[in-house]
Write a structure and sequence with these properties.
The protein has six helices and five strands. It is α+β, with helices and mostly antiparallel strands. It starts with 8 loop residues before the first strand and ends with a helix.
């Protein structure tokens, strides 16, 4: 692991040409989460969905070293609560293992939280696997585990199910 004093990091909004590096980090996150078989997209899909549209599907922030290497990212999108109004959903937050413990994840998280605050979003939601040590980090920033406090359960209807429903 590298010490913070050895690292010069810039947090900035991602550009289309960053998506190749971001996709590698997405694969690394999926591997860390033991869900690598679920990644079905590639960098070209990220480029199209995030940059080739009048209404991009997501926004991405990157943590970049002075040599241009991107070692972390936060990907989020706007959502809506019928109870509260405008919201942000943080889909991914990831920093390569060698750079963890230097506050880079916190910088990325706080950058998204600042955007949520500045856009007058009423909340910032995200999910985290129950075994992920990042839970302690999120709680230290004031995050509330809705599974514990409100008993919300998260459900999903995947593409196969959608196809079956409409075949």
């Amino acid at each position: 692991m590298l010490k913070c004093s050895e690292i010069n990091v810039t947090i900035r909004k991602a550009k289309k040409e960053d998506m190749v590096q971001v996709f590698k980090l997405i694969r690394a996150l999926a591997e860390f989460e033991r869900l690598e078989d679920q990644v079905k997209i590639d960098a070209s899909v990220l480029e199209k969905d995030g940059f080739d549209s009048e209404n991009p599907a997501f926004t991405c922030l990157v943590a970049e070293l002075s040599d241009g290497h991107i070692m972390g990212y936060a990907l989020y999108y706007y959502s809506y609560s019928t109870w509260l109004g405008r919201s942000i959903f943080l889909e991914d937050l990831y920093v390569q293992a060698a750079y963890r413990g230097n506050g880079i994840g916190k910088q990325l998280f706080m950058a998204v939280a600042k955007i949520a605050h500045e856009t007058q979003s009423k909340r910032m939601d995200f999910h985290c696997l129950c075994w992920n040590p990042a839970i302690r980090f999120y709680k230290s920033l004031g995050a509330i585990n809705l599974t514990s406090t409100e008993k919300w359960q998260m459900f999903r209807i995947d593409k196969d199910c959608l196809d079956k429903l409409f075949s």
